[in-house]
Amino acid sequence: MAKIIPFRGIVYNQAKAGGIDELVCPPYDVISPAAQQELYGKSPYNVIRLEFGQDGPRDTDTDNRYTRAAQSFHEWLRTNVLRQSETPALYIYEMEYSAGGVVKRIRGFICRVRIEDYDSGIVKPHENTLSGPKADRLSLLRTCGAHFSQIYSLFSDPRGMIPGILAKVSGPPEMQVKNGDGVLHRVWTLSGAGDIEAIAREMADKPFFIADGHHRYDTALNYRNERRKAAGTFTGDEPYNFVTMYLARLEDPALTILPAHRALFGLPGFRPGTFEDDLNRYFDLERFDFDERSEPKERKRLLDMMASQAGQSHVFGMRLKDRNSYYLLTLRNDADMDALIPTASPAYRRLNVSILHHLVIEKLLGIKMETHKLGTNIEYIKDAAETVKRLEEGAAEVVFFMNPTKVSEVRDVAAAGERMPQKATYFYPKLLTGLVMDKIE
């Protein structure tokens, strides 16, 4: 049974810390070194110092970015840069953004969720995680005893009961910030006991599908297990048994997943002609030749054709090094995937990313599935133009263009207890870090 509870959120005291737009940051895993430095320059109180601090040349076991984060966190609490609510609450979080020329608003809420083992079926992941980020997040959690950001999860609510409760809160938000990509983030506090109890009852029998934040959930689970082992006995209601999540409705039409394109490099003995012949055994290939002037037009033509066929066929785009051509690849026969990975669920076998990773990258290019997530031969890129740039600069030998994974596919694969290949989804927009924090110690 799922358990969600309110908590005494920690927020910035803007009268002392400054405007909220100078204080928040994107998720740590999308912050480049240059962006990290820029965030450091925004404000001495920017949450980057807590969530993703800088390493120093003289760091030690007792003076490093984790200990400095803990020192800053406790100092900001002591000096009222950060303030903790007196009353447990849920926090309504709305993001307004533009996608495909349409303005969308997605509204969910931030709460504490009881951490559950995956085999309980209550929390369902859909992607694999890497050991490096989990070790980093665990060090931060151990040292600071706080969650500075939320895991983004989805729940099914076909009747729209939860949005009906959240819609009761209106008026100017308590926090509002527009970040660099133009997304408007708004936060309200929901402290009414009746509304909180109604939401908790409605959520009690629902599984949660992790959309974004698999590393953070795994970290919270590992930390919980450490604390339980150290304590010896526990009730299950201790703060370390919970993690903060942003929960949004699976059926919300404002949910957006962007594609993550693939650039492959370091392929031993790669020969474009031979590879094209290999592809012809499984795919129908449609080629669009171009010159320097017509390249943008043909690339757009390819992406438009992919989008138009997304619901009917398994398609993706491709370009090879030293070739002035784009290719539309369409899988001829689903039975090829059935034979290749017969133990996988139908939902998994029909994913475009599964077809690409298992049939093309592993079988035809010889890169084993277990190495895909290491990034030794594959780079994942959101922007199609940036993907092309890798090829033209000689940093890739072949690139693949993807349609976005559907929300229903995320649900079905997670419900089957499976995890998609690396970077199968890019949920957009990303949650901001530092709007609401949670102290668990």
Structural write-up:
- This protein starts with a strand and ends with a strand.
- The protein is 34% helix and 24% strand.
- Strands 1, 4, 5, 6, 8, 9, 10, 11 and 12 form a nine-stranded mixed sheet that branches. A six-stranded antiparallel sheet has the order 15-17-16-19-14-18, sandwiched between helices.
- The chain has two domains: 4-256 and 428-439, no CATH class; 260-403, no CATH class.
- It has helices at 14-17, 33-42, 48-51, 65-78, 131-144, 161-166, 193-203, 214-231, 272-279, 295-308, 335-340, 346-349, 352-364, 369-372, 384-392, 407-415, and strands at residues 4-5, 10-12, 82-84, 90-99, 102-114, 123-124, 146-147, 151-155, 175-178, 184-190, 208-212, 242-249, 256-258, 261-264, 283-289, 315-320, 325-331, 378-381, 398-401, 426-428, 438-439.
- The mean pLDDT is 94.
- The relative contact order is 0.17.
- The protein is globular, with a radius of gyration of 23 Å.
- It has 16 helices and 21 strands.
- Helix 5 (131-144) packs across helix 8 (214-231).
- It is an alpha+beta fold and 441 residues long.
Descriptive labels:
alpha+beta; 2 domains; 21 strands; about 35% helix; about 450 residues; six-stranded antiparallel sheet; globular
